[in-house]
């Protein structure tokens, strides 16, 4: 097995593949479900950004005190 196959795919590759999917064959319910899932992923990403920004702010505060 190729070692590259064991590595997780890079996020941009997956996002590009998602953007290129042909959604013209999906029905209204399927499109609404897709939107719901994407909205949940956006919320998860925003929460992670907030968490990372909070960690950065905390780290900066620690180093400023020194």
Written overview of the protein:
The chain has 66 residues and is mostly helical. It contains three helices and no strands. The longest helix has 38 residues, at 28-65. The chain is flat. The protein starts with a helix and ends with a helix. The mean pLDDT is 86.
Any idea what the shape is?
flat
Helix content: over 70%
Radius of gyration: 19 Å
Q: What's the helix-strand series?
A: HHH
Global structural class: mainly alpha
The N- and C-terminal alpha carbons lie at a distance of 50 Å
**Count of helical stretches:** 3
- Beta strand count: 0
Oligomer: single chain
Whole-number mean pLDDT: 86
Task: State the gist of this model.
This protein is mainly alpha-helical and 66 residues long.
Give a topology summary.
Blueprint: H1 3-6, H2 11-20, H3 28-65
Question: Which key features would you list for this structure?
Answer:
66 residues; mainly alpha; 0% strand; flat
């Amino acid at each position: 097995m190729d070692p590259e196959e064991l590595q997780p795919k890079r996020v941009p590759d997956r996002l590009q593949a998602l953007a290129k999917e042909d959604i013209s064959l999906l029905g209204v319910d399927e499109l609404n479900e897709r939107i719901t899932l994407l909205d949940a992923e956006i919320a998860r990403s925003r929460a992670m950004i907030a968490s990372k920004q909070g960690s950065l702010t905390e780290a900066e505060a620690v180093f400023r005190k020194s």
